Amino acid sequence: MLEKHDVRTASFLPASRANALSRLDAFTPQMAETYTEERNSDYGPDDRSNISCLSPFHAHRLLTEQETIARALGEHGLERAEKFIQEVYWRTYFKGWLELRPSVWTRYRTAVKQAIEGLSGERKKTFERAMAGETDIECMNAWAHELVETGYLHNHSRMWFASIWTFTLKLPWVLGADFFYRHLLDGDAASNTLSWRWVAGLHTAGKNYAATASNIRRFTEGRFDPEGQLAVDPAPLEDDWNGKPEPLVAVPAPARGKKSILVLHEDDCGWDSLGLEGIDLVAVAGMTVTDDRSPYGASELAKRFAIEAVEDALNTADDGLPVDAVKLASPSSLDDLAEETGAEQVIYPYAPVGPVRDRLDAAAAGWRQAGLEVSQILRPYDNAVWPHCTKGFFHVKNKIPELIKDL
Ligand SMILES: Cc1cc2nc3c(=O)[nH]c(=O)nc-3n(C[C@H](O)[C@H](O)[C@H](O)COP(=O)(O)OP(=O)(O)OC[C@H]3O[C@@H](n4cnc5c(N)ncnc54)[C@H](O)[C@@H]3O)c2cc1C
């Protein structure tokens, strides 16, 4: 018999395109009024009927944001599904924002290592208790267990958790972000890092998110009530990381007529919507680097989800494309495949700022040295939104009626 948490976990697995599409179908009727009215409530891990739970599939692009938005528009129209569509654009906004400010990612990576090294005494104990779900705050304990056991938390609970971690437990926000990133099935360098910064008052300078007992009581339907336990009116944190946005680097399309290996990675498994027409493919390869998320690696569940996602993409590519699809032990093991197939070019779906990009950048230098051309495929959807991500979300929000015309 399955343990209770296995049953909950099973609701996200398998990490496959088929599962993503059937979840999209199942949630489509709820994308309008139900979502608008109920999305802020966390009914608990056994009832996720009011939200889509599509984020792990978006994060690995087993389902593209474009497909989800198109479904909402086709079924309900912009007016009725506006709130849901805006939430999907939040994801794209965060990605674009970090793409324009890659130094925030570099600083975050350094800060995580420094914070781990700097932990000692009571603070270290509080950190360990918070992750183990052994604090004096019942809701924090429940969310820590849920995150570790299922790889998922409701958005509102993520906000409450991050706020209590930062302002009540007074732990470094970067360590909370690292804890989330290790465990979330939808773990995403941009949405995770920037949401934690937003809660702390760093993304929108001076505006932090303070969790309150009454809000938690209301939106958990009384399951939790941390009355008297939370920091009241905490001050926002401060730093100077955000700086000015850098120009986006142009991404030229891959050369046609060259023998090419397509490398699928855990940030984008959606080979069939990449626009591969005219590319002379000789093989498809797949890789995961999920342990690169954190100095502590990634959870077994997060790794399993990423591996299944890439394996599913390789299986469907093997069936759908006239070439073989193989799994790579690491990005550098592509060299043998290139020699076997006589490849002249390596192409991959654009890897946004994050650990996959870091690893692929390093591998690409080696591939170029070995005489291969390397190019990425940037999706028109991302390319259309990212230039608008220079400031706050409302700039993107205001552009939605225009952006959806191009979908
Ligand atoms: C501290 C913190 C950390 C977070 N870390 C991540 C992360 O690592 N990866 C991640 O994908 N999301 C992250 N989020 C955003 C959000 O919590 C999840 O995307 C959402 O809970 C996913 O559940 P869902 O698919 O049911 O979303 P729904 O409410 O059904 O929304 C539909 C889709 O819109 C996108 N979306 C919804 N809300 C947000 C949001 N606030 N920000 C960005 N995209 C959103 C997701 O792709 C989601 O699948 C974080 C939020 C906070 C507050």
Concise description?
The protein has 407 residues and is α/β, with parallel strands linked by helices.
Q: What does this protein look like?
A:
- The chain is of the alpha/beta class and about 400 residues long.
- It folds into three domains: about 5-100 and about 385-405, Serine Threonine Protein Phosphatase 5, Tetratricopeptide repeat, CATH 1.25.40; about 115-220, DNA Cyclobutane Dipyrimidine Photolyase, subunit A, domain 3; about 260-375, 3-Layer(aba) Sandwich (Rossmann fold), CATH 3.40.50.620.
- About 50% of the residues lie in helices and about 5% in strands.
- It contains 18 helices and five strands.
- It has helices at about 5-10, 15-25, 35-40, 55-60, 65-80, 80-100, 100-120, 120-130, 140-150, 155-170, 175-185, 190-200, 215-220, 300-320, 335-340, 355-370, 380-385, 395-405, and strands at about 260-265, 280-285, 325, 345-350, 375.
- It has a five-stranded parallel beta sheet with strand order 3-2-1-4-5, with helices on both faces.
- Strand 4, helix 16 and strand 5 (about 375) form a beta-alpha-beta unit.
- Helix 6 (about 80-100) crosses helix 12, helix 6 packs across helix 18 (about 395-405) and helix 11 packs antiparallel against helix 12 (about 190-200).
- The chain is globular.
- The N and C termini lie far apart (about 45 Å).
- Residues about 1-10 have low confidence and may be disordered.
- Bound molecules: flavin-adenine dinucleotide.
- Flavin-adenine dinucleotide binds near residues 51, 53, 159 and 196.
